[in-house]
Design brief:
The structure is a single chain. The chain is an alpha/beta fold. 36% of the residues lie in helices and 23% in strands. A hairpin with a 6-residue loop joins strand 5 and strand 6. Helix 3 packs across helix 13. The longest helix is centred in the last third of the chain and has 25 residues.
Length: 338
């Protein structure tokens, strides 16, 4: 990864629902959180950045490193589940920057894993066996969408592989699921992992089970399903959260197999964090390990819930401070004045 043109560096975690902005003043220091705002509160990313910088009185940013919830194939990228288009050149010129870098948000989250380690005090909660050795790692997270990335060590360097794993087909594997699948809404005409394993996916599951039981669904948002499910006030929501946890475990196990993730599989995102007790007490691990003929391998593979509130910003700060440590895809814009 290219070295930032200079510090301070503006860091941004731009998701489908929220955008978070921070400043990293120098490579050895902590990042300073400027703002967390809804993407719908601003017409574009430039407006959101300007708002975040309104009350910032520190040294002007020289570079920017932006993590996007979408595919990054060039210096102009589109969010998968929001209306923003992020143009590195436009941002660079409007802010008077020397260098703007775009990366996938889960690539940035993967870069946080060496910093987070595998200890509770660094922002992780282990679910399952203890880590027995090193190896590739995977991080994934249900939110507005479903992101995932892998990270592997090669000598002193780390290779980060971004993915669009959330958009692979996700089929039924049991009689119960075969009966439920026809009831599930398909917003893009197909049933992908993200269709189910996301905030909107949780609501789709709730509606599908209600439809199957011929019950009128009375919950409309992921927060309502989680809150009433956790409180026990809505038995159907409680059941759906158990189903969601099982499906998340299955998908996490699949990615663990794909990447050979003997170094652990990490679950991030606000939905999973609010479901910490459910994940620990559900069939999450059973589904994760049920990968014949590799049950023993998966049984030894630890899973962790990321409890740190800002793993993407941690990863961005790590990338900015230690760019030569990581190999990953990033898109760049540089001022001609550099």
């Amino acid at each position: 990864m290219a070295v930032p043109a200079g510090f301070p560096v503006l860091l941004a975690d731009i998701g489908g629902t929220f955008a978070r902005f921070s400043i990293l003043a120098d490579p050895g220091g902590p990042f300073h959180l400027l703002a967390k705002d809804l993407t719908t509160a601003h017409p574009n990313v430039s407006s959101a950045i300007a708002s975040a910088l309104d009350n910032y009185a520190g040294a002007k940013a020289v570079s920017a490193l932006l993590a996007l919830a979408g595919r990054v194939s060039g210096s102009v990228a589109h969010l998968t589940n929001a209306g923003w288009t992020v143009d590195a050149q436009t941002i660079g010129r409007e802010l008077g920057l020397k260098h703007v870098m775009l990366v996938n948000d889960y690539s940035a989250a993967a870069a946080a894993l060496p910093t987070l380690g595998n200890k509770p005090e660094t922002g992780l909660l282990r679910i399952g066996p203890e880590l027995k050795g090193e190896g590739p790692q995977v991080i994934l997270g249900p939110g507005t969408g479903l992101g995932a990335a892998g990270i592997s060590r090669f000598g002193q360097r780390m290779l980060i592989q971004s993915t669009e794993a959330g958009h692979i087909d996700f089929g039924a594997i049991s009689t119960e699921e075969l009966e439920l699948w026809p009831m599930i809404e398909r917003p893009r005409g197909r049933l992908s992992a993200e269709t189910l394993l996301s905030g909107p996916g949780l609501v789709r599951l709730y509606r599908a089970v209600a439809r199957q039981r011929k019950i009128r669904p009375d919950l409309e948002t992921p927060s309502e399903v989680v809150e009433t499910g956790l409180s026990g006030k809505n038995p159907l929501a409680t059941e759906v959260m158990q189903l969601f946890a099982r499906l998340l475990g299955r998908f996490a196990g699949d990615l663990g197999l794909v990447f050979g993730a003997t170094g652990g599989v990490f679950i991030a995102g606000g939905i999973a964090l609010r479901m910490a007790d459910v994940l620990a007490r559900s069939e999450f691990r059973t589904a994760f390990e049920s990968k014949s003929p590799f049950e023993a391998v998966m049984g030894d593979t630890p899973t962790f819930l990321v409890t740190h509130p800002e793993p993407v910003l941690v990863g961005l700060a790590t990338l900015a401070a230690q760019p030569r440590r990581f190999m990953l895809h990033a898109a760049h814009w540089r001022s001609r004045a550099v």
